[in-house]
Amino acid sequence: DCFLNQIHSNHIVSGSRTQTERLIEADGIMSDEYNQNLWIYTADCMPILLADKNKRVVAALHCGRRGLEKNIIKILVQKFEKIGSSRKNLIVAIGPSISKKNYLVDNKTFNKFHKKINLKKLKNHENYFEKILNIRNLITPKKQAFIELDLRKYAHMQLLNEHIPEANIDISSLCTYESDIDFSSWRRSKTSSRQWSCICT
């Protein structure tokens, strides 16, 4: 079994690197041997699981707003490419995470995300930020504005931008914030509990 000390970074390590007495600080694991179980824990961020269906190589990511800002998805796809994977053979599952309506951020956070995500390089952004900014300015005084941020949408766009086929991407609609029975949510209750996601070679 492969575990990490997750730190909201873009650092991705091989499964064998996690087999030490001390937990490695990273937010992604990529298999490098057979019979590895890769584990990621979340409590509002997205668990993202990837697999090359031909090479039988898999990976697991912990990805939230900061992971998107730091291009952890792009870095992982490049790692697959370095071992000879074809992007058309990568399949992706994004597990339960906080939904757009429940993830509200202030102006400063939103604008920082806007700059770091660099939508000019994303081909599928549909002027999303521009639309949100226009709506926000119409209905809410600037100092009081809180904006819904759709983490799943941006993960999806980053995957498409890396030429992962649309048909190869599955995104859960379940929201971790909304159900205190099924999921742990940091935003809802500041809990130390987490849900675990696993992918196996």
Give the SSE layout:
Elements: E1 12-14, E2 28-30, E3 37-42, E4 46-52, E5 57-63, H1 65-69, H2 72-82, E6 90-94, E7 104-106, H3 107-117, H4 128-139, E8 146-148, H5 151-161, E9 169-171, H6 186-189, E10 195-200
Parallel strand pairs: 1-2, 6-9
Antiparallel strand pairs: 2-5, 3-10, 4-5, 4-6, 7-8
Task: Describe the fold and architecture.
The chain is of the alpha+beta class. Helix content is 27%, strand content 23%. The protein has six helices and ten strands. It has helices spanning 65-69, 72-82, 107-117, 128-139, 151-161, 186-189; strands at residues 12-14, 28-30, 37-42, 46-52, 57-63, 90-94, 104-106, 146-148, 169-171, 195-200. The termini are close together.
Short description:
The chain is an alpha+beta fold and 201 residues long. The protein contains 6 helices and 10 strands, in the order E-E-E-E-E-H-H-E-E-H-H-E-H-E-H-E. The mean pLDDT is 89.
N-to-C terminal Cα separation, in Å? 11 Å
Helix content: 25-40%
Strand % is: 15-25%
Counting DSSP E segments of at least 2 residues, the number of strands comes to 10
Poorly predicted spans: none
Largest sheet: 6 strands, mixed
Structural class: alpha+beta
Mass-distribution shape: globular
Q: Give the overall pLDDT as a whole number.
A: 89
Order of helices and strands: EEEEEHHEEHHEHEHE
